[in-house]
Amino acid sequence: MSQYSASEIEAKWQAAWETAGIFRAKRSADKPKYYVLEMFPYPSGRIHIGHVRNYTMGDVVARYKLAKGFNVLHPMGWDAFGMPAENAAMASGGHPKDWTYQNIADMKAQMKPMGWSLDWSRELATCDPEYYGQQQALFLDMLDAGLVYRKNAVVNWDPVDMTVLANEQVIDGKGWRSGADVERRELTQWFFKITDFSEELLTAIDTLDDWPSKVKLMQANWIGKSRGLQFSFDMVEPAEGFDKVEVYTTRPDTLMGASFVGISADHPLAKALAAKSPEVAEFRALCAKGGTTEEALEKAEKLGFDTGLRVRHPLNPDWELPVWIANFILMDYGTGAIFACPAHDQRDLDFCRKYDLPVVDTFFATEDDTPVANTAFVPPKTDKVRWVNHFAGLDVATGDEAINATIDFAESAGWGKGVTKFRLRDWGLSRQRYWGCPIPVVHCDECGVVPEAKKNLPVQLPDDVSFDVPGNPLDRHPTWRDCACPSCGKPAKRETDTMDTFVDSSWYFARFTAPRATTPTVAEDAEYWMNVDQYIGGIEHAILHLLYSRFFARAMQITGHLPKKAIEPFNALFTQGMVTHAIYQTHDADGRAVYHFPEEVEDGVLKATGETVEVIPSAKMSKSKRNVVDPVSIIASYGADTARWFVLSDSPPERDVEWTASGAEATSRHIARVYRIVADIAAMENATGTGDDDLLRATHKTIDEVSKGLESFGFNAAIAKLYGFTNTLHKSSAGGDAKRFAAAALVQMMAPFTPHVSEELWSLLGKDGLVSIAAWPEADPAMLVDDTVTLPIQVNGKRRGEIVVPKDMPKEEVEKAVLADQAVIRALDGAAPKKIIVVPGRIVNLVI
RNA sequence: GCCGGUGUGGCGGAAUGGUAGACGCAGCGGAUUCAAAAUCCGCCGAUGGCAACAUCGUGAGAGUUCGAAUCUCUCCACCGGCACCA
């Protein structure tokens, strides 16, 4: 072949890899293992450029480690349960199962041409009974170990469709289909006891050395450990069987600024009052309006209801405070009751101003005693402040000191107790939906809630379901619900809730070590392949998915499914930025947003109808918003090597990248240029030339820099070095021997990025075997050091010139050389420098 | 609202306390060609200057330092997460 043709070579080399079986992971003692995993995709049906970027990053790592002599495990699967399949069934009448498996087939067909070094023999889909049956076994073991329980929790309830809505389906407090005002309603649900591990999940963050610090910080904040004071306000007149209100506060030091006692609308006292008082019941109903997200609760207008009940201040029995029901107090956190200190909490202040409640300052800044008006004074807890008549005798002290002093004071006086609490809540896993893993329990009138027997697993989803009415089809299935109680054998009903899809993705990394096993994992395989050495995925999973996986690793260790060393399953984490793209939307007759694919839009109008589209710039690519870019056309036009190189070349991998089509053409030209340069070199005579040594040095330097780039996810930097090295090689007048050495190194270094053309050029250079498994080139340290160094010279921090000096010239001689330099003499203009700063090997700065 | 992040030429970005703009794209000029494509060579932050060079310049403002894109504080804009999107 005389010129580069992607279409001819890519299929050829993919077949060669397949035949050689070089990506099939096998356990063996002779090599170290390396497990690289990218977060598995949801089978939307089309791969998008974000997938291409994510999986190419993982592939570069996997291929580099393969060349470095590791046994590499690089698997792929499908996060295949979830709402979009049901939505598709509702929209077009098909079945979620058919839709999902068709999407998997389509996406796999689009992924194969990318040439990723995946071990497809380990492919799994979470909707395969082979997978979810083992997940049910895992669930039963966790139930047995006391890690699962049932309790009430609130959901978004659509009162028109009579169905539970996902947060995503609540838009501005209304149901997405019915448009009805959404209510918060309690339901009995299954929970994982993740809070048993709050302390452990928090402290173990310190062991995650190769995780981004921002992710560790987000997880720590999410777990939210706090120390505070728990104590009671005695009621002046007991009511509804309550004689006190127990509160928890992280700022007990502000107790003298208490304005009222607030209880959550879901507090037992509020419920008890509502049973007697229509006004309270009405207020509770008002508080129940809207969605369940923390954001909705935080942003909602502050509402309060004065119960008329009074409580006594613990430090002064004559001081009575009113008890209010307030919508911003969460039943899930602390005791569901607080005391409000408006002077030092903005929410409390807003509330007190609205309902005309007193505002009492308890401390001031050391130099400023302006009373609080409409902005609460909330300095960092590490700042010293001046206290007003503090009951524990403080004058000037930090918030932290005051909190500790107050807790000690309350404990020794016997009216309060220092308590550590966590923000983290237990993980509710019940979903009132069809397309998920059935929860393998049975409800029996005689025996209560009974786990399904393991021999009856998997509890398979029935195929004969319809989606023509809202709600969970399992709930109204004529026969699937009916079963025999595993305990007493009498007729019973199956649980119709299925599992949160986060459960599916919380252990797939472990399943990949033995994907076909008839137990969740196999000890020898888990022992050999765990942990994941490098995990790669989107920053949007920084908290939930990763925290749930960390919990599952612990639960699986307790239930005997993972070894102790896998307690933290991901040794290193890399969070790639998202690929963003403009969203194109129009509105239907009812004013609801309709999204359009980029290829349907031209010059701001829909190609089909000429309708003007609204452009929302730079949003996260998402299948529901349809702002996805199709990589298939890039591969068809330029080939996989171009697509692979291009997605990694322009932007640092952790950063978001706005996708634009320009540049693929240029990448393709560059690959063709490398092809020509290397092909010419392959035809050169064996000989020496001028600059052999320079080229050799440049080669070793590039090997060093590119290897470092690959080790540290500096893919764009590594590619920039490869561009530079290609230019150096092209301009060099070195002889055939040196050039062939340099060309072979170039081809090898490009191989993780552009494996197909690299294989072609490797064989063109007359090398034996596959470049994919050729040993990675090593840089000779002796070739990396230069004898001289160029030092920039600054005068008062501004660059005025530069000198070239021997690498290890002593400071005094550098100073002499600098002062003798013409540019320096000109810049000094006769002035004598006050100070000369010489940073060896870096810079010289003269201060005048 | 709360938590986390990002901000540098026309564009993607490099430099993580030491020469701001590596490398790439776009653009401009030249060579080659009957012509074009491809290819090759060169220029390319702004302002002033024939030039040498000077001044300004990393979202805005302040600070620390011999020296700041980089560290600190305040503010602005955008992005991610907020427990039932995956």
* Strand-pairing-aware structural class: alpha+beta
Shape: globular
Radius of gyration: 33 Å
Overall strand count: 38
Strand content: 15-25%
What summary fits the major beta sheet?
Answer: 7 strands, mixed
- End-to-end C-alpha gap: 65 Å
Q: Residue-averaged pLDDT, rounded?
A: 90
Percent helix range: 25-40%
Distinct helical segment count: 25
Question: Which spans of ≥5 residues are poorly predicted at pLDDT below 50?
Answer: none
Task: Describe the secondary structure blueprint for this structure.
Layout: H1 6-20, E1 33-38, H2 49-67, E2 71-73, E3 77-78, H3 83-92, H4 96-111, E4 124-125, H5 129-144, E5 148-158, E6 163-165, E7 170-171, E8 174-175, E9 183-192, H6 198-203, H7 213-223, E10 225-239, E11 242-249, E12 260-264, H8 268-276, H9 278-287, H10 294-299, E13 304-313, E14 316-326, E15 337-340, H11 346-355, E16 363-365, E17 384-387, E18 396-398, H12 399-413, E19 416-422, E20 427-428, E21 430-431, E22 441-444, E23 448-451, E24 482-484, E25 491-494, E26 498-499, H13 501-504, H14 508-511, H15 523-529, E27 534-538, H16 544-558, E28 573-576, E29 579-587, E30 593-596, E31 601-602, E32 605-606, E33 614-620, H17 631-638, H18 640-649, E34 657-658, H19 664-682, H20 692-711, H21 715-731, H22 736-750, H23 755-764, E35 788-795, E36 798-806, H24 811-819, H25 822-828, E37 835-839, E38 843-847
Parallel strand pairs: 1-2, 1-27, 3-4, 12-14, 27-28, 29-34, 35-38
Antiparallel strand pairs: 5-6, 5-9, 7-8, 9-20, 10-11, 10-13, 10-19, 12-15, 13-14, 16-17, 17-18, 21-26, 22-23, 22-25, 24-25, 29-30, 29-33, 31-32, 35-36, 37-38
Helix pairs in contact: 1-23, 2-18, 3-4, 8-9, 17-18, 18-19, 19-22, 20-21, 20-22, 21-22, 22-23
The chain binds one RNA strand of 86 nucleotides through helix 7, helix 10, strand 20, strand 21 and helix 16.
